Amino acid sequence: MERITDQGIITGYLTDASNTHGHAEVLVRPRTVAEVAAVLAHCQATATPVTVTARRTSTTGAPVPDGGWLLSMEHLDTIYGLHEVGGGALLGEYQAHVAQLGHLFPPDPTSRHECSIGAAIACNASGARSFRYGPTRPWIEAIEVVLPDGTILPRIDRATPIPGDWPQLAWSEPAVKTAAGYFPADNLLDLMIGQEGTLGVITRAWTRTVPAPIGVLSLIAFFSDLPSTLAMVARARSDDALRPRAVEFFDHNSLAMVRDRVPDIPVAACAALFIEIEHDGEAPLEAWWDALVEVDALAEDTIVAEDERGRARLHAVRHAIPAGINEQVVANGMPKVGTDFAVPHAHLAEMMARYHAVPLRHVLFGHIGDAHLHLNMLPTTPEQLAEAKALYRELALAAVAVGGTVSAEHGIGKLKRELLADMVGAEVIAAFRALKRHVDPAWVLGQGTMLSHMID
Ligand SMILES: Cc1cc2nc3c(=O)[nH]c(=O)nc-3n(C[C@H](O)[C@H](O)[C@H](O)COP(=O)(O)OP(=O)(O)OC[C@H]3O[C@@H](n4cnc5c(N)ncnc54)[C@H](O)[C@@H]3O)c2cc1C
């Protein structure tokens, strides 16, 4: 395996979607698990930092190296079959393969056509469909993983115990959708899911799928106020006749951003829900109509799509919002500051009031079915950027104070370590550190991600 030291090549690997920048001395692109193992064994023996990089869509700086070696997963991308796939494969390509065979692999981060399945497992990624199907975790049956000392574990699953001499993690995650910190697992597979490339390199996965639904109904429903929107969310969560797989929110600023491109948005709308419902051939349109009327939605204005073409149109509306944000970021010449907090449902309205009170220009949208919204603050000056960062921290602490999480899906990476400590406390951080130190004695793998290596 070639050790690439040409900075002209390495430079393409040194950033991610958070715009964090790093540096590395060597890039390796292994083609086999044995090569991955050889790299990790070498780095452990020589105390050389090594960072796993996949498709670099992380929003947390996690795949960005601060020196040392970079291990790219790009060549470990084979799709072996319906339920077996290489860690470096593109998630969207694997999903397309599964769909051709009449199945559905539910995890669907918005970045699925740009991100790898190994990283989706390493970060326990979620998406819109997590409302019904949960995050990536339940869809992983087993993995092949290489430990930081180069040991290859060819297939671990939920029957594989955590080795008895590994420090135990005795903590409870908050009772919300969360992707923050090591999972308090009772088996090795669950411990390796969500570890953000700090405890092992996932080279292969065996998955679970479900038969593809016969039909999917998509709709965008509009509301003239927030109480009716939240009433619809509560109804979607509790009414068995509705059973959506996704319930996504867009605030009035999001709608304003796409009004030009989407003439169907009613003037009276101040919020919208994008909803997807799987069905067995008979779309439950009547049940949805009744529910929308009862909660006082702008029911007549609902946009409904029952076929592939109509759904593509609705998805285009949905994706126009992040695209609009990106255009705004470029125009502002300042990065956006985006949150990833989830709170218990009982505190959702209160959290939304905090978001709406933010004095900077912002857009609020996301996975409201899981009480998990992304507030995107769009500063236009360095002063506003500093203000946005301060507000971000205040909002994170507010989410934690009501039993929420500082990251529901994107992970901690290098940018949210302090917030993780705020959320879990010093004792749990000490337990995380003891585990990391035991599994990776030279603390080389994913250095700086989730935990600082500087303290010990
Ligand atoms: C536009 C956009 C939309 C997004 N939408 C979502 C979303 O809806 N839901 C969501 O959860 N996330 C989302 N993300 C975040 C990101 O896409 C996910 O975290 C994704 O899993 C990262 O995949 P990647 O291949 O780009 O990994 P990278 O960014 O390259 O790496 C991410 C982390 O995983 C580690 N890693 C990578 N591969 C492996 C491996 N094989 N074994 C062990 N560790 C590994 C890296 O070291 C790093 O710590 C979004 C990002 C963008 C830019």
CATH T-level fold name of the largest domain: Uridine Diphospho-n-acetylenolpyruvylglucosamine Reductase, domain 3
Tally of helical segments: 14
Overall CATH architecture of the largest domain: 2-Layer Sandwich
Q: Helical residue percent?
A: 25-40%
Biggest sheet layout: 7 strands, antiparallel
The average pLDDT is: 95
Q: Span from first to last CA?
A: 33 Å
| CATH structural class of the largest domain | Alpha Beta
Textual characterization of the structure:
With 456 residues, the protein is α+β, with helices and mostly antiparallel strands. It folds into 2 domains: 3-211, Uridine Diphospho-n-acetylenolpyruvylglucosamine Reductase, domain 3; 213-324, Alpha-Beta Plaits. 33% of the residues lie in helices and 18% in strands. The chain is built from 14 helices and 18 strands. The chain has helices spanning 7-10, 33-46, 91-100, 117-122, 130-133, 188-192, 226-238, 252-258, 285-294, 308-332, 348-356, 382-401, 417-424, 426-439; strands at residues 3-4, 26-28, 50-53, 69-72, 79-81, 84-86, 103-104, 140-146, 152-157, 201-207, 210-211, 215-223, 246-251, 271-279, 303-305, 337-338, 362-367, 372-377. The strands form 4 sheets. It has a 7-stranded antiparallel sheet, with helices on both faces. Strands 5-6-10-8-9 form a 5-stranded antiparallel sheet. A 4-stranded mixed sheet has the order 1-2-4-3. Helix 13 (417-424) crosses helix 14. The model has no long low-confidence stretch (mean pLDDT 95). Flavin-adenine dinucleotide binds at residues 16-17, 51-59, 62-63, 73, 87, 109-111, 115-116, 118-120, 122-123, 125-127, 196-197, 201-202, 409-410, 446, 449.
